[in-house]
Amino acid sequence: MLEHGGKVRQAAARYRIPVEDWLDLSTGLNPNGWPTPEIPPTCWARLPQDDDGLAQAACDYYDTEHVLPVAGSQAAIQALPSLRPPSRVAVLDPGYAEHVHAWRRAGHEVSTVAPDNVDESVRDSDVLVLIHPNNPTGARFDVDRLLELHARLAGRGGWLIVDEAFIDVTPEHSLCPFSARDGLIVLRSLGKFFGLAGARVGFVCAHPALLARLHTFLGPWTVNAPARWIATAALNDRAWHTVSRRRLRAEGARLNALLTNHSLEPEGGCALFQWVRTPHAHAIHNTLASQGILTRLFVESSSLRVGLPGTETDWGRLETALINQAATNPAKTVS
After folding, report:
1. Contact 201, 71 (CB under 8 A)
2. Does the structure show a pLDDT above 90 at 29?
3. Is it the case that residue 331 has pLDDT exceeding 60?
4. Which CATH number, 3.40.640.10, 2.130.10.10, 3.40.50.10700, 3.40.630.30, labels domain 42-236?
5. Scanning 91, 230, 253, 268, which has the fewest C-beta atoms within 10 Å of its C-beta?
């Protein structure tokens, strides 16, 4: 199993701080997610139904014609490698590590590629996997450039897979409206923007023939009925989408400024998180954790991903911790 954010219980045991006293900034989730109402009792008593309105709500929200609901985009990440013969796969690096893990486990030849070398990697690849905006760096790609990369791959039976888990604040940059094109696969999730990670609801936007193959591979009832009901209501709440996008853009800028003011200027990020690369990432992570603030540490790139605080109290707590961190480790800041 790969490491992920959100392991508050593990941190509580390590640092001997009660679970309820932690401020978890490690996941990049919207800390003020969609307000879930009470779930109708009938959702618990019936098998999930494909015609319950979820697929249409997702098509409307993602501006596409065809979607397949799945148990979080992770389900698709694990399944898609099984739908191709042995292939040469290029995956953006640094990036969400589950992509590399899934393709290698399925026996494909996997190489990692830096954002600046994506165009060159297409020449020697059958599949290109991008995270957009990237997790954790926040790197972005022009839509026209992505469509050109897709055309080059699709022309020889290849795939372009774009993981858009963090794109909801800027939907104008999404490839979902183009996902009916053969060989273009877009992954979406309700975990980040909607803050509904526990529901495990995601979507694959792609050509209907590919979606049919994926549906057959995954089998029936991949998303439980209560989660489908919640997801449908959340996707249809257009007023909440508008307000939340405006708020998250402002809060992302606020977090960037806060970190910069404390000598931890982010090198990248998006509205939901900021990415700080520093040779002292491990020490800073530990110092913040000793104060009950959990960030996401990336050992190989010596960097931290810091998510948004949810309340003014949380913002104040983070600033105090950053002040204490600088006092504890005055040399361990970004110059």
Report:
1. yes
2. yes
3. no
4. 3.40.640.10
5. 253
